[in-house]
Amino acid sequence: MSKDTLFTQQKLQSITLLSSLLLCALNGAETLTLAEAHQLALLQNPSIEAIHSQHRAMSARIDSADALPNPQVKVTYFGESVETRTGPQQAIYSIQQTVPWLTKLSTQKNIARIDAEIILHAAQSVEQMLLRDVSIHYAEASYQEIALELTDQSLQWIERAQEVAEENVRNGRPLNDVLQFELELERTLDMRDQQQQRLEAERAELAALLGTTSDRLPLLAVLPEPRTEKLDSTELKRQLRHNNPELLAMKRSTASAAQATELNRLKRYPDLTFGVNYIQVGEGNSNFSDAGEDPWNVSIGIQIPLWEKANRAHIRAAKANQRASTANYRNRLLELTSALSNAVSQHGDNLRRMQRYVNRLIPLAEQALENTQFAYESDQVDVLDVIQSERILLDLQINYWRACADTAKAHAEIQALTTNISK
Residue 140 to residues 31, 195, 205, 366: CA-CA distances in angstroms? Predict the structure, then answer.
């Protein structure tokens, strides 16, 4: 099954999938997973349809690339007949067909085929970048939802602590304790408003990638915690060279330039033109046995490539394009290898941060908050110590999920660089 046929079938299936997801959004019963977001993006994003249409247009040119030039039909009518021994010539009917030299047509077809492959790799690259962007915005939006939930939990804790402080004030504690909790409550509410704004912005970005609007976008699934296995940089670099659609397109561009050089070289050889001529003869006064019969003949012509200046210039230009394509490929390979190394480094760094948060920092902060609360109730510490302990715990929890989101983003970048969804 061709890629275009598969794309068309998937397009027909999108209506059912989109309808079910929108129904879930209206009912508030289901969430949108990352896999579903990827599928919707591939089916609904206009850029995917545009690039596949370009590929279909380029593929359609392959069948015409090796077609013979159109034949030429010519009619010559004599205003004044030319008298011959068989009678007066009245008209000449000619048909001619030019046949290019040997492999010119096959080379033209190879160029068209390679150009179609370049567009196909470009389409795959667009798909990869779209999936990467969906993953990044999905991770960021999911992180903002989690941060919002953690902040809401912190607000609930502050409200409960404020009630305790008010009770303590009635028992003789300073009124400043209540004011400090009120201040912390307002500060946290302001932080929550900022998180809400960032969440709405991320959902709008994600919805645009999915070809819909944020008000029709279902809730997102909880951001999964990344796997902690170490990545193999050597293997990833090998996958980059063999799978990256952009690099594959640049390789085929080099092959197309090489075929263009060969086509210009073949232009040094002549094209052949075959023809058939039919002469209409009128009634004459000749006594010859073939008098009044219409003669015909065949002809062959050769196009002489005499002027080489223009063709030599075309060959030089094609070779220069070939060298430029090769150099561009090497340069882009270095750039993408550097981007891959950076993504792998970020992935590993964020995994280490996650482990540090979950194994050491967050448990210590939870224990510190518990101890500080007990000490405050025993009138051993100031209210600011309690607020500071809660603030540290909230920051560490949010930073943990920030590291999870950044790990997911780095993973999306690695996937975009080293995989090809068509394989």
Answer: 16, 11, 10, 26
Q: What is the C-alpha to C-alpha distance for residues 327 and 321, in angstroms, rounded to an integer?
A: 10
Exposed, middle or buried, 201 (CB in 10 Å: 0-12/13-18/19+)?
middle
pLDDT at 26 over 80: no
Q: Is 81 helix (H, G, I), strand (E, B) or coil?
A: strand
* Contact yes or no for 417/240 (Cβ under 8 A): yes
Question: Alpha-carbon torsion 226, 230, 235, 236, what sign?
Answer: positive
The number of beta carbons lying within 10 Å of the beta carbon of residue 401 is 23
pLDDT per position as a tens digit, 207-224: 999 988 888 888 888 777
CA–CA separation, 165 and 382 (whole Å): 11
**Spatial CA neighbour of 389 closest among 404, 399, 400, 374:** 374
Model confidence at 287, in pLDDT bands (50, 70, 90)?
A: low
- Token reading at 175: 């009124």
d(CA 142, CA 223): 6
Was domain 3-66+103-268+308-418 assigned CATH 3.30.390.50?
Answer: no
3-state class (DSSP) for residue 21: helix
> pLDDT band at 389, cuts 50/70/90?
very high
Residue 24 reports pLDDT greater than 60: no
pLDDT of residue 250: 93
Domain residue ranges in the chain: 3-66+103-268+308-418, 68-99+270-304
Average confidence (pLDDT) over 350-375: 92
pTM of the model: 0.79
Q: How many CB atoms lie within 10 A of CB 187?
A: 13
Q: 127 with 44: CB under 8 angstroms?
A: no
Q: Residue 2, exposed/middle/buried by CB under 10 A (0-12, 13-18, 19+)?
A: exposed
